[in-house]
Amino acid sequence: MSRLADLPSHGYRRTSQRAAIFEVLERSGGHLTAAEIVGAIEERGLPVNRSTVYRTLETLLDTGMVRASRLGRSTSYEVTHPAGEVEHHHLVCRDCQATLHVTGSGVTDILRAEAAQAGFRVDDVQLTASGVCRRCRRVRRP
Amino acid sequence: MSRLADLPSHGYRRTSQRAAIFEVLERSGGHLTAAEIVGAIEERGLPVNRSTVYRTLETLLDTGMVRASRLGRSTSYEVTHPAGEVEHHHLVCRDCQATLHVTGSGVTDILRAEAAQAGFRVDDVQLTASGVCRRCRRVRRP
DNA sequence: GGTACGGTGCGACAAAGTCGCAATAGTGGT
DNA sequence: ACCACTATTGCGACTTTGTCGCACCGTACC
Q1: Is B109 an interface residue toward A (CB < 8 Å)?
Q2: Nearest CA to the C1' of C6 belongs to which residue?
Q3: Which nucleotide does the CA of A56 lie closest to, via C1'?
Q4: Residue B117 approaches strand C within 7 Å at CB
Q5: Is the CB of A18 under 7 A from strand D?
Q6: Do B102 and A93 touch (CB under 8 A)?
Q7: Residue B7: predicted pLDDT
Q8: What is the pLDDT of residues B7-46, one digit of tens each?
């Protein structure tokens, strides 16, 4: 797994902007869009340019420290392996857009084992299931 | 599962544009971006407006006939349950971007069972694992 | 067949993301 | 500590992607 300090070993420099971006993502705990990241950093008095955020996210994706997903309407980012993480996956309701979490399914291990047979090393598993939540099912919409 | 003809039962009308968009997605077999869909349809001589494509994709997402994902740089769409489908998931290499498929992992059933305990009905499972493929591991890049 | 209303095209707009270039600041070596 | 090398940043202009209102069109249901 990757921490900020590992950047140099990936051939990248460690800069204050990258630190800020990563830290904001880490603290938020959830998903942030590029625009939200810019906003969060500027709130701390430290201005950052949009381009920098986009470029940094790209390099963080390369190192596997960050993951991109499109849960709602726009692309959002999150830290892949935060300290004390527990495996969890997302259930998104097509009707009300609510997001539930499923934990401890063991899916990650299964995938890792399957992938290993092909020589593929799995670092991160992103699973999103879509369907209809309990409430919306009762309200009756096929 | 949903076919084009089921649109009315979802409260949507069946139009030639929707048919074209769905068919293009079905035939492509893979992932298409909104722009690619417009292009593919116009190639058949039938012009379509961008807005229509976006709006249609939104309704197809609502019905669960189509799934959105961000594998590469931009959002792409694919049919969720094509005829004769086999459960398969994606392994994407961070170094060379190659995509492998894992089939028959049983992950979908596991998820479905877990979700059912929360009253959630799973219609579609989208799993993407990132890591490093066999080749890139040999070339040695952490 | 007729009609109500959901869907489409269009054009203008907003948001998201990219790029080249000059200035800046890590990093590794001394 | 200092230097030089080069990756990274900021900036601004630009492209791409996605959204919206409105007038017209055509499907579904009677």
Answers
A1: no
A2: B13
A3: D8
A4: no
A5: yes
A6: no
A7: 87
A8: 888 889 999 999 999 999 999 977 899 999 999 999 999 9
Which among B54, B20, B21 is positioned nearest to A73, based on CA atoms? B54
Q: What does the pLDDT read at residue B73?
A: 66
Residue of A nearest to B67 (CA): A130
Letter string b/e over residues A124-140, b meaning 16 or more CB atoms within 10 A of that residue's CB: bbbbbbbbbbeebbeee
**Residue A55 phi/psi, 5° resolution?**
-65, -40
Distance CA B122, CA A139 (A): 17
The model's pLDDT over B75-108, given as tens digits with 9 standing for 90+, comes to 899 998 777 778 889 898 887 778 888 998 889 9
- Contact B118/A134, CB-based, under 8 Å? yes
H or E element that contains A13 = none
C-alpha angle with apex A65: A45 to A59, nearest 5 degrees? Answer: 75
